[in-house]
Amino acid sequence: MAEGTPILRIEHVTKQFGKLAAVNDVSLDIVDGEFFTIVGPSGSGKTTLLRMLAGLDKPTTGDVLLRGNRVNDVPANKRPTCMVFQSLALFNHRTVGQNIEFSLKMRGVSRSERRERCKELMKVVRLPEDYYAKGVTKCSGGERQRVALARALASDPDIMFFDEPLSAIDYQLRKHLEVELKDLHRETGKTFIYITHSLEEAMVMSDRIGIMQAGNLIQIGTPDEIYTQPLNKFVSEFMGEVNTLPVVIGADGKFDCAELSAQFIGPAQSNRATSGYLVIRPESMRFLNEPSQADNHVSGSLFNEYAMGSRVQYHVRAGNQMLVVEKLREQAFQGNLNDDVLIGWDVKDSVLVND
Amino acid sequence: MESRSKRWTKSLIIVWTGVIVLFFFVPIAGVIISSFGKSRYFRFPVRSWSTKWYDQTLNANLTENLHITSFYVAGCVALIAVVLGFFGALAFARYDWKGRIFYQRLIMLPIFFPQAVLGLALLLWFTYVGVLPSWEAAVFAHLVWIIPIVTLVISIQVYGFDVSQEEAAFDLGANRLQVFREVTLPALAPGLFSGALFAFLLSWGNFPLSTYTSGADSTVTEWLYTKMSSGYTPMIPTIGALSVYGSIAILFIGYLLLIARRRRNEKRA
Q: Sign of the CA dihedral A98, A101, A106, A109?
C-alpha cells in the first residue's frame, strides 16, 4: 500500500434523520494501525458516525472509502470490519465458545479448526480455558467484555470499532480494561476506532482523538494537542475541571475580566479576537506568597479541599467564580479553610478560546 | 422480635401455598377418584371401586374420534396462531411504525368479547359467506380469539430481545437468513413455545366457540357438555381423568427431551 493512503477515509459524510443532521459534513482520515477515539456527549452523533463506518447505516450524502474503495453500499457483513457493541450484543442463548466461533461458523470453517482458533483467542483476551462451554449469561461483566472482544477478533477484521463498550463497567475494572485494550491494540497491530463520552478514557488509550459536538467533528489532534490547545470552551470543559475566565481584550492588549474585576496578561493573539475565555488548567494554578511570583494573580479565600489520591484539589472562591487549583500530594498547600489566599499562573500556561 | 416475625411469615407462606395448591388440585383429584367408582352416578364418597368405565371408554370408538377432532383443531390452531402471532408480535413489540399504538389496542379487542356471542356472530357470518360448520370452521373461530393472546405471549419475549444481537451477527458475516436462523429464532424460541402451548391448550379446552362452529365434527368438550346436560354417563369423569394422564405423560416426555438436549449440548461442548 502506498505510503500515506489512509485505511479509512471519510469524505463530507452527513446523516440526516428528518430535518436533523445527526452527523454533519464530517471528513476524517484514519491511518492504518492507529487507535483513533471519537469523543462527544450523548447525542453528538458519534454512534451514528460509527454505524456508517461499520456498514450498519448509510450516509445521506458523502462517501466512506476503505483502502481507497468507496464502500457506502457495502453492507456490514461484507466489510472487513467488526464492531464491539455498547450492549456487547452477546448471543445469550449460546456458550462462550459458540459466541467466539460465530463468524468462523458463518464462513464455513470446520469445527476442529474453529475450536483451535477459539482457544487461541481466549488466551489473547485472558479468558480461562474452561470457560469454553460456559453460558455467556453466567459470565461476569468483565468476562462478557472479553467474550465480545474475542468474538470480534475471531473474524480477523482490518478495523475494529468500539461503541462505548466500557460505559457500563465499574471504575476499577474499567481502568484495568482500558489498559488491556491498549495493549491488545499494540499486540494485534489492527486499526481501532473507539467512541466514548469520556475524554479521560480517550486520553489513556488513543493515538489521536476527534471531538464531536452536535454532529460536527470540531477538533482532531493527539491527546497532548487536545489537552494543551483546546479549540473552544466546549472542548476545554469537556476535559474535566478547568478554570475558564470570560475576558474582553482591550485596545491596550490587556485581558479584562469583569467578573473578577481584574486585568490579566494573556497569550499573544494571531486572530485579533476581542473577547473569549481564558483557560487555565488546575495544575498550572499555583499558590503565591506575593503577586510577583507569577505573571497573573487573583486573590480569594480557600473554600474547600479534596484529596484525590496522588493529587489534592483546592477550590478557591474569588468574586463569584470558583477557581480550581491542583497540587501533588507531597506538595500540598498548608492552610486552613476560609484563609485568604493568593493564586496565580503564567502566560504560557493559559489559552484563549472562543465560545 | 425479628426471628419470631420471620418464622411467622415463613409459616404463613407455607399455609397459604398449601391452601392454593389444595384449591387447584382437589377438584381434579375428585374427578380422578370418581372415575374409579363403580356406580352409575357421580357421587361422593366412592363406595365401591372398579375400572370398568375405563374399559368401556377405551373400547368406545366414539371418544377416539372426539379426541382426534380436538387434536386436529388444537394442532392447527397452535401452528397457525404461532406463525401469525410471531409476525404480529414483531409488529407489536419490535418495529416502530405509524399505527402501532392503534394496532396494539385493536388486537386486544377480541379477547374481551364474550366468547358465546363471538361464536354465534361467527356462525352467522360463516353462513352468510357460505362456509359450512365443520372442524376447519372451528379452527378459524378459535384463531380469532387465540391469536391475540399468542401475539401478546410472544411479544413479551420480543420485548426482552436485544436487537443489536442481530446487528452483531450481521456484522460478523452472517446473511439475513443466517441471522434469523442462528440468532433471532433461537432467542425467541421460548416465547414461540409458550405461545404454541397456550394456543393448543386454549383451543383444546374451548367450548363456546366450538359449539357454534364445529357442526357435525364434535370435539371432546362439546361431547362432555352434551353428555352432562342430557344422558350422564360415568365415562365423563373417566375421559376427564384420561386427559389428565395424557397431559402428565406429555409434560414428562417434554421434560425428558429437555434433559436429553441439555446432556447432548454439554457433551458437544
A: negative
- Report how many domains make up chain A: 2
B180 touches chain A (CB under 8 A): no
Hey, is the C-beta of B96 within 8 angstroms of any chain A C-beta?
no
When divided into structural domains, chain B yields a total of 2
Binding-face residues of B in 138-167 toward A, CB within 8 A: 162, 164-165, 167
What is the interface pTM, i.e. ipTM, of the complex? 0.82
A2 found inside a domain: no
Subunit contact A85:B167, Cβ cutoff 8 A: yes
Mind listing the pLDDT tens digit for each residue in A291-327? Answer: 889 999 999 999 999 998 888 999 999 988 899 999 9
Q: Residues of chain A whose C-beta is under 8 A from some C-beta in B?
A: 54-56, 75-77, 81-83, 85-87, 89-95, 97, 102-103, 106-107, 132-133, 151-152, 154-155
Residues A258 and A215 in one domain: no
Residues B112 and B214 both lie in one domain: yes
Dump the DSSP string for A3-27.
TT--SEEEEEEEEEETTEEEEEEEE
pTM of the model: 0.78
Among B258, B253, B219, B257, smallest CA distance to B239 is for B219
Sign of CA dihedral B91, B94, B99, B105: positive
| Chain B residue with minimum CA distance to A155 | B172
How close is the nearest chain B Cα to the Cα of A297, in Å?
Answer: 54
